[in-house]
Amino acid sequence: QVQPVESGGGSVQAGGSLRLSCVVSLDRYRPYCMVWFRQAPGKEREGVATINRLGTTTYANSVKGRFTISKDNAKNTLNLQMDSLKPEDSAMYYCAARSGSDYCPYDRAAYNYWGQGTQVTVSS
């Protein structure tokens, strides 16, 4: 079952940290991408960070140096460590995945497996 399931959202003050996790079972013998998107009220869903089967990572400029994406293959888990959080990081965070390619674009249409989302709220 590939359906991603996120956890770890919550409320925190600016400057604090949160760790998001997502359980997603992919075929580890095929290329794949896992990605975190976020969507704030009234805004477009935007890509935050990606990681592929090879462990190659990318980050949106807005989170570079503050967020770290990682995966635990043994636990079929994708993680997002978020440090130095800002109020503008407040959003619903979604885990998404796709199989068949190690190329991970920030294009939501490229991903066919989506979680339900977990809310992150950062207060000033």
Structure description:
With 124 residues, the protein is mainly beta. It is 0% helix and 48% strand. It is built from no helices and eleven strands. Strands 2, 4, 5, 6, 9, 10 and 11 form a seven-stranded mixed β-sheet that branches. The chain has a four-stranded antiparallel β-sheet with strand order 1-3-8-7, with no helix packed on it. A hairpin with a 4-residue loop joins strand 7 (67-72) and strand 8 (77-82). The radius of gyration is 13 Å and the shape is globular. The model has no long low-confidence stretch (mean pLDDT 96).
Brief write-up:
With 124 residues, this protein is an all-beta fold.
Helix-strand layout with pairing:
Layout: E1 5-7, E2 10-13, E3 18-23, E4 32-39, E5 46-52, E6 57-59, E7 67-72, E8 77-82, E9 91-99, E10 113-114, E11 118-123
Parallel strand pairs: 2-11
Antiparallel strand pairs: 1-3, 3-8, 4-5, 4-9, 5-6, 7-8, 9-10, 9-11
Query: Distance between the terminal alpha carbons, to the nearest Å?
Result: 39 Å
How would you describe the oligomerization state of the chains in this entry?
single chain
Poorly predicted ranges: none
> What shape does the CA trace take?
globular
Give the amount of beta strand, in percent. Answer: over 45%
Number of helices: 0
Mean pLDDT: 96
Number of strands: 11
The portion of residues assigned to helices is: under 10%
Helix-and-strand structural type: mainly beta
Rounded to the nearest angstrom, the radius of gyration is 13 Å
Main β sheet profile = 7 strands, mixed
State the order of secondary-structure elements, H for helix, E for strand.
EEEEEEEEEEE
